[in-house]
Amino acid sequence: MKKMQQMYEGKAKKVYATDDPNLVIVDYKDDATAFNGEKKGTISGKGLINNRVTNHLMQMLETHGIPTHFVEELSERETLVKRVAIIPLEVIVRNTAAGSFSKRFGVEEGRKLSSPTLEFCLKDDALGDPMINDYHILALDIATREELDRISSYTFQINRVLTDYFKQRGIDLIDFKIEFGKTPDGTIVLADEISPDTCRFWDSTTHEKLDKDRFRRDLGGEQEAYQEILRRVIG
Ligand code: TMP
């Protein structure tokens, strides 16, 4: 597999073409941003941790019947994945109130929700990733009804699997954001990453935050928190 020209650089990853038109390489950076890129920094070792944690979780999800873009881990920071067209939606599940949900609805952080919630945001930095509903998504041809139903059912299944998985490792999965892509034949697969950048992880006993909120909120100890997640996920 030959790594070829860079196709794209995002806030946390770069994507490279390969000599196979159906495969690309993702390369995870240590760069960290928050508030739509307004706050910038680095978390040393983050790229390696997010690469390994994402790959571990995606392979685990595959065993539970969730199709993903994962193909092969190539190095500490690089992974071969299927080339997909990303559906421009941030798909967010919440089990416990936190972050923008708490702010929007005036609910204290840490209140367990009576049922898991599903939210969509339009992936558009220029617009600040606005919230979007099913009707908007259909009206703007972002996804079809069938695709949206499939995304929603995969997402709740992913939530059940991940919640159990993390519970066994002493971590409460508060909320998370995932993204889906479409392969050339129209198959919907889980793409992007699942990491402390994209999930809220609270220690089940101490309730300590073990995720990117340490960076967003200037709490310190982000490197140690990411290391701790790697240790508990991979063991
Ligand atoms: P929020 O409470 O800020 O809306 O975040 C909900 C979840 O989504 C949380 O686990 C962090 C994750 N997230 C991202 O992965 N990317 C983002 O740009 C934002 C705003 C949140």
Please summarize the sheet with the most strands: 7 strands, antiparallel
Shape label: globular
Bound molecules: thymidine-5'-phosphate
Radius of gyration: 17 Å
Portion of residues in beta strands equals 25-35%
Helix content: 25-40%
Distance between the termini: 30 Å
- What's the assembly state of these chains? single chain
Helix/strand-derived category reads alpha+beta
**Helical run tally:** 6
Low-confidence stretches: none
Mean pLDDT: 98
DSSP E strands, number: 14
Topology as H/E string?
EEEEEHEEEEHEEHHEEEHH
Characterize the structure shown:
This protein is α+β, with helices and mostly antiparallel strands and 235 residues long. The chain has 6 helices and 14 strands. The protein has helices at residues 46-63, 99-105, 134-139, 145-167, 213-216, 222-234; strands at residues 3-9, 13-18, 23-28, 31-34, 39-42, 70-73, 78-82, 85-86, 89-96, 112-122, 131-132, 171-182, 188-191, 199-203. Strands 8, 9, 10, 11, 12, 13 and 14 form a 7-stranded antiparallel sheet that branches. Helix 1 packs parallel to helix 6. It is globular, with a radius of gyration of 17 Å. The two termini are 30 Å apart. Bound molecules: thymidine-5'-phosphate. Thymidine-5'-phosphate (TMP) binds at residues 92, 98-101, 175-177, 198-200.
Comma- or semicolon-separated keywords:
5-stranded antiparallel sheet; globular; 235 residues; 7-stranded antiparallel sheet; binds thymidine-5'-phosphate; alpha+beta
